[in-house]
Amino acid sequence: MESHFAVLRGIGLHYLSAGEKGTRPLMVFLHGFPEYSGAWAGQMAAFSPNYFTVALDLRGFNLSDKPKKVSDYRIDALMGDVSGLIEHLGYSDCVLVAHDWGGAIAWAFATHFKSMVRRLVIINAPHAVPFARALAQDPAQQAASQYMLALRRPDAAERLLAQDCVRLQAMFKHPVSGKSGLSETEMATYVAIWQQPGAMDAMLNYYRATPLLPPVPGAPDPSGLKLEAAKFRVEMPTLVIWGMQDTALLPVLLEGLQECVADLRVVQAPSASHWVVHEAPELVTGAIRDFLGD
């Protein structure tokens, strides 16, 4: 893989690439919290013979710029990074593959930049409409999402960085087996990335900027945020891969998804958690390959 840095619309963004640029169609990968571009190394290796594969460090993460204002992490700015990257690479469209926060960006991007996404692959990341509905009506998802409120606290970065990031390291443990999908070497790399000056607060700004939150006593009920499926409809062929043991994003978030996606395929990973990319990489790669018809 090759490492690159580009200033796009005033923001410095780092990304990795593999494969032949220009002669192959573009495949863009977007990671989530608290990961970075290297999370996609296995998929980039698998698809680079047929695609020009690019994995972005989202703004605030790893080597990309880390704006200090919470408003710099709202969805319009994040979508602008993706469109700017595609244009910078000399392409007009891509296959877009995304997980977690990257998936949230990808859902929105596929809605607002339809012509720039040929096919969409989402991994354990809820579409805004089912997510808003579950946050308003489903007690289990409301309880599972309380961590979002903790990550908005002023002292959240300090707490997550304490004791060599022990809380973040624990996040990667499977809820049943207790094993991490990351090797010791990979985890050491993650810890070093998290400990970069200003990085943790920047990463947490994604949670501070989002309007989609679970209910909290004394705060407005999120049921007041009503999203119409027709206004957030995704038209291109879409694959959703879901680790069914995810304890933060529950399977209820798959319900009603067909209302929002014109051409939907869902692949469930029954024994995998939120970190299905690390725990079941062959399943993820195989499902994407089948979806693309390669």
Explain the layout of strands and helices.
Layout: E1 2-8, E2 11-18, E3 26-30, H1 41-47, E4 52-56, H2 75-88, E5 94-99, H3 101-112, E6 117-123, H4 128-137, H5 139-144, H6 146-150, H7 156-171, H8 184-194, H9 199-209, E7 238-243, E8 264-269, H10 276-279, H11 281-292
Parallel strand pairs: 3-4, 3-5, 5-6, 6-7, 7-8
Antiparallel strand pairs: 1-2, 2-4
Protein architecture, described:
The protein has 294 residues and is an alpha/beta fold. The chain has one domain (2-292): Alpha/Beta hydrolase fold, catalytic domain (Rossmann fold). The protein has 11 helices and 8 strands. The protein has helices spanning 41-47, 75-88, 101-112, 128-137, 139-144, 146-150, 156-171, 184-194, 199-209, 276-279, 281-292, and strands at 2-8, 11-18, 26-30, 52-56, 94-99, 117-123, 238-243, 264-269. It has an 8-stranded mixed beta sheet with strand order 1-2-4-3-5-6-7-8, sandwiched between helices. 42% of the residues are buried.
Name some characteristics of this structure.
37% helix; 294 residues; alpha/beta; single chain; eight-stranded mixed beta sheet
Gist of the model:
The protein is α/β, with parallel strands linked by helices. The protein is built from 11 helices and 8 strands. The chain has helices at residues 41-47, 75-88, 101-112, 128-137, 139-144, 146-150, 156-171, 184-194, 199-209, 276-279, 281-292; strands spanning 2-8, 11-18, 26-30, 52-56, 94-99, 117-123, 238-243, 264-269.
